[in-house]
UniProtKB/TrEMBL annotation:
Catalysed reactions, as listed in the record: 5-phospho-beta-D-ribosylamine + glycine + ATP = N(1)-(5-phospho-beta-D-ribosyl)glycinamide + ADP + phosphate + H(+)
Gene, per the UniProt record: purD
GO molecular function, one term: metal ion binding
Name this protein carries in UniProt: Phosphoribosylamine--glycine ligase
UniProt KW ATP-binding keyword: yes
HAMAP family reported for this sequence: GARS
């Protein structure tokens, strides 16, 4: 079987690597992929949102399975187009992906289905938003309603920070259409857990958990990013915590989407705050997390293509996982998540089995930066501590003239 992966980030590189190892898979294609994943997949020059060209390519190249990595093509309806063309695709329709695409939809959906989450208010009016902040007090969380690549969220600890975030979104249109309205959300306290599941209709098959580090700098300082590093497993939580999160969050979400006539197929991701009152949803995503995929997929011993196919055929695949730990650290362009230079050389990249490229292009045979998050280096080892030591040992070799990385991924679990 040939597999087509839509997207070109680190998550897609990890998907490509996983499929490339499968005895079920002949050729892995990526649209558009990136310069750093050319050894793993045949990269084709097709935009990830160009549904017409993607379906034409799949039909012409005997693609038995297409997997859509990022949220933007999902919300554009790429899966709908594949379904209409009678092609096998693992991912949600744009109707089902609304659980990620609109935070206000997600909040109202959770309310309808009694899925635990923080209290909230949606508004597009700056004065009303300010009044809400005055009434509720700080800390309070402010989110652009639509897609903002993980950057539209501010956890405001002062009224000034809240005001600045509301001005950016509602008055200065910093997030364009995505910031036409804001969601003001109760601040939740606890430890975070990213829990993803393979979902087809009401069948939910959970994966092992992961923890992401969203802030740009060490010690969880600085602005929110798409994610600066992750690890799996998350020893702070045991099987019963995960079972509770599946029962209270992932299963009712899948059931609710099916009940509302937008059944979900694909990867459902719950970003959870594990509070004193149990798990509460911070966000839903309609796809693998990035960088969570890069640390979870290397632990999957089951065959990914078979898991997806069996699920779509109506089965309930059982998953086997490596007991090893994986920890990965992102190297990003200096300036990210703000503005940064593109086209600067990426040199002295360490050798690693789990090296996933994202914003990487190629000029005259050398890698150059092409995005904010440039690469993720992960190591798999018997313990998180060993994986962490190995990752940071290797990253010492990376030329950081134009790149930076956090030096404390996993520190919250590893006391040294
Ligand atoms: P999101 O893009 O919604 O996942 O938010 C990005 C990050 O902001 C999360 O991973 C949390 O660290 C933080 N965050 C979001 N919502 C809340 C909340 N209600 N309470 C506390 N922290 C939050
Ligand atoms: N790492 C969080 C996300 O993929 O949205």
């Amino acid at each position: 079987m040939n597999v087509l992966i839509v997207g070109g980030g680190g998550r897609e590189h990890a998907l490509a690597r996983t499929f490339a190892e499968s005895p079920e898979v002949d050729t892995v294609y990526a649209a558009p992929g990136n310069a750093g994943m050319k050894q793993t997949a045949v990269c084709i020059d097709v935009n990830e949102e160009d549904a017409g060209s993607l379906t034409a390519f799949a039909a012409e190249h005997d693609i038995g399975l297409t997997v859509v990595g990022p949220e933007a093509p999902l919300l554009k309806g790429v899966v709908n187009a594949f379904q209409e063309a009678g092609l096998t695709v693992f991912g949600p329709t744009k109707e089902a992906a609304a659980i990620e695409g609109s935070k206000s939809f997600a909040k109202a959906f959770m309310e309808r289905h009694c899925i635990p989450t923080g209290t909230y208010k949606v508004t597009s009016d700056y004065d009303e938003a300010i009044r809400h902040v005055d009434n509720e007090g700080v800390p309070i969380v402010i989110k652009a309603d639509g897609l903002a690549a993980g950057k539209g969220v501010t956890v405001a600890f002062t009224k000034e920070e809240a005001d600045a975030a509301l001005r950016d979104i509602l008055l200065d249109d910093k997030f364009g259409e995505a910031g036409a309205s804001v969601v003001l959300e109760e601040y939740l306290e606890g430890e975070e857990l990213s829990l993803m599941a393979f979902v087809h209709g009401t069948t939910v098959v959970p994966m092992v958990g992961a923890q992401d580090h969203k802030r740009a700098f060490d010690g969880d300082q600085g602005p929110n990013t798409g994610g600066m590093g992750a690890y799996s497993p998350v020893p702070q939580f045991d099987d019963s915590d995960v079972e509770r999160a599946v029962r209270d969050v992932l299963q009712p979400a899948a059931d609710g989407l099916a009940e509302e006539g937008r059944p979900f197929t694909g990867i459902l991701y719950a970003g959870l705050m594990m509070t004193m009152d149990g798990p509460k949803v911070v966000e839903f995503n309609a796809r693998f997390g990035d960088p969570e995929a890069q640390v979870v997929l290397p632990r999957l011993d089951s065959d990914l293509a078979s898991v997806m196919t069996e699920l779509m055929d109506g089965g309930r695949p059982s998953l086997t996982w490596s007991s090893d730990a994986v920890l990965g650290v992102v190297a990003a362009s200096k300036g990210y998540p703000g503005s940064y230079d593109k086209g600067v050389p990426i040199t002295d990249v360490p050798d690693a089995d789990l090296l996933f490229f994202a914003g990487a292009g190629e000029e005259n045979g050398t890698y150059v930066t092409a995005g904010g998050r440039v690469l993720l280096l992960a190591e798999k080892a018997a313990t998180l501590q060993e994986a962490q030591t190995a990752v940071y040992g290797k990253l010492k070799g990376l030329d950081t003239t134009n790149l930076f990385y956090r030096t404390d991924i996993g520190r919250n679990v590893i006391k040294d």
